[in-house]
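Troubleshooting log. The previous structure file for this entry was overwritten by mistake, so regenerating from the original sequence record. Sequence copied from the archived sheet and checked twice against the printout by T.R.
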Amino acid sequence: MVVLNNEHYMAQGLARKCYFYPDNDALCIKIGLPDVDESHITKEIDYYKKIQNKDVAKFDYPFYSLYHETIETNVGEGFVYDLVRDEKTQKVSKTLLDYIVMKDCPIEDSIFDSALHRLKEQMIKHKIFASDLRPRNICCKILKDDSIELIIIDGIGHRDFLPLADWFGYFARRKVVRRFESIHLHTADEHRQLIRRLYPKWINW
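Regenerated output below.
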């Protein structure tokens, strides 16, 4: 059993708490919140198992955080994933949402836009889908040369009864593009304007 305490706590999302994995800086442990339907988590894990044979070496880069195993912890069942860190500082990478709402963001929108296009094309090419593709679920990893990679850290999977997108490139493209369009995420500023309309207090500059 892995013992977690307050010093390991990292953050909390809508469905899970996230902890640093003790003695392993490359991993994190996610624990489901007590009031969240377990099927929300098990469906995601089932999808990870479904795509575990994907050849990551063929990706331009690993564009989603890999699931490793399910473990027992002192605070409940834990799900072990890669922890995304910036190469330059080894700090935990900020989310794309953090940067989109950041005043005086050090990264230009054009860089985010190129990275979003790259992420979208990789999802289409390798038929990897996300049911909750939002900036809060995407980490922005800063590399040693100051370039960035966008990595999905939550919300992987889909619930299609007839998964045509898993089999055919045409349907894969339609599905991914539709997801980007639904949340106005083709560009960073497009999503920023959406946030400004829906949550004006988030962006007050």
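The radius of gyration is 17 Å. Archived copy saved in two places this time.
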